[in-house]
Amino acid sequence: MDFKTATALRRLRLVSAPEAVSFLLLLICSVLKRTTDFNGVPVMGWVHAVLFLLYLVFWADAWNRTKWKWQTAALYFALAVLPTGGFFAERMLKREAEASVIAARARREGVVNA
């Protein structure tokens, strides 16, 4: 994996958890708006919108650089629209990055799969 691909995956991974947190906070603010006098929806709506758009931009960049199959790309997209999906995306991206580092190290050292 080259440096730009690793960077694209890292950016997507770093924005996925905050995007999930903002989604959950937006849902909580929506409930509080209807049950109390508290209205944090306008602020959390903007925060979540910015993080979601960043996720989409980084997702498209990672898809372009990693050459994922469309099923993998669709899974990462679907995780962005689920309330806790960003946490799962972060975990999956971390595993993918670790596996690619191990594979790159093995190639560099000349280790061949048996």
From TrEMBL:
<dbReference type="Pfam" id="PF12823">
    <property type="entry name" value="DUF3817"/>
</dbReference>
<feature type="transmembrane region" description="Helical">
    <location>
        <begin position="39"/>
        <end position="58"/>
    </location>
</feature>
<keyword id="KW-1003">Cell membrane</keyword>
<dbReference type="InterPro" id="IPR023845">
    <property type="entry name" value="DUF3817_TM"/>
</dbReference>
<feature type="transmembrane region" description="Helical">
    <location>
        <begin position="70"/>
        <end position="89"/>
    </location>
</feature>
<feature type="domain" description="DUF3817">
    <location>
        <begin position="9"/>
        <end position="95"/>
    </location>
</feature>
<keyword id="KW-1133">Transmembrane helix</keyword>
<protein>
    <submittedName>
        <fullName>DUF3817 domain-containing protein</fullName>
    </submittedName>
</protein>
<keyword id="KW-0472">Membrane</keyword>
<keyword id="KW-0812">Transmembrane</keyword>
